[in-house]
Amino acid sequence: MPGGRRLVIRARSVRQATRLHLALRSSGEITDVRVDGRETGLPSGHEIHLAYTAIPVSGVGLALTVHGSGPVRLTAIDAMHGLPAQLAPTARPPAFMETPSDELRDPTS
User: Fold this and answer.
1) What total of structural domains would you count in the chain?
2) Does the residue 90 lie in any domain?
3) What is the reported pTM?
4) DSSP string of 21-90?
């Protein structure tokens, strides 16, 4: 399929999350998807999903060709393990028991 619009995107997490999921949807066919200049081997279609783990601080480069003049919708979700430092749990107050009864103890210990 000749022609089409070439889109180039740099996706990164401003909060430096470790995982990134991109979903692109278009009324036109999406072809020739490349990540950081390398072919992905993804089949052509109207929707693609890409998942990244251990994304660099600089992000990832995505290039693709879209056929047709309709809009391209991009959804980006970044994720990380755990809570941000300001939401991390604090130490247990000394007035609280570590284990209130034997029923809640780990049976394997």
Assistant:
1) 1
2) no
3) 0.70
4) EEEEEEEEEEEEEEETTEE--PPPEEEEEEEEES--TT-EEEEEEE-SSS-EEEEEEEE-SS--GGGSPP
Average per-residue pLDDT for the chain:
87
pLDDT at 45 over 70: yes
- The answer to whether residue 30 sits within a structural domain is yes
- Write out the residue range of the structural domain in which residue 41 sits: 5-80
Cα gap 28→47, rounded to integer Å: 9
With cut-offs at 50, 70 and 90, classify the pLDDT of residue 104: low
Q: What is the pLDDT of residue 66?
A: 95
Q: Which domain CATH number covers 60?
A: 2.60.120
